[in-house]
Every structure is written in C-alpha cells, then in structure tokens.
Amino acid sequence: MILVSNSLHVSIPEGLPIANCLQPNVDATAVKVAPLQSAEAAAQDLAGVVIVGVSLGASGSVQQAAVYKSSGSLLLDNLVVAEARATVYAPRLLSCLPVGGSYFFRGEVIKE
Q: How many domains does the chain divide into?
C-alpha cells in the first residue's frame, strides 16, 4: 500500500494499522494546572522548586505522584505534590491511542 501526502511517498507494510487521527503521536500535557496556595508557606516566607514524578493512566488520571527532587521544605514539597495530583492531564497518544506513562511536574513556589 502506498499513501501519498504532499508529494511524500510512504510505504506501509500490509496489515500494519494506519493512524487515522490528525496527530497520532503526542506527548502528555498538563491541560489545567491547579495552582494551590498555602498561608503557612507564605507566613514562613518559603520559596523553592520541587520536581514531582507523576505516573498517568491511559485516561490521563494521576496514578501516583511523589517528590523526585525536594525543595528542602516538607511543606513546599507536599504543596507541589498536591498541585501535581490536582492538575488535569491529557495522556500521551501513541498511534492515536492514549497510553499511560511517567513524567516530571515542576512546581515553583515564589515569595510574593
């Protein structure tokens, strides 16, 4: 089978499924980040960066979230883990099918 698209000829082996969506391979993305605030962190004048490892299911739901790199403050770490869990994600697409995977969520708490 030969597909022609914009003068590009691609040979597809027989029996191999053909992706029929506009973007068959897309990385997972954070669709809606849920920024959280902490009066306690503000009162303590805390700031820092936390990297959270997030495992997503094929639906984009958070299966697991844990601190990968700490800010040095348990309060900030827990705040960013909660933010990563509350965020809405679009899953990765692989050949047009949603798949789960593991990703990093970076949260930065700044002083106001």
A: 1
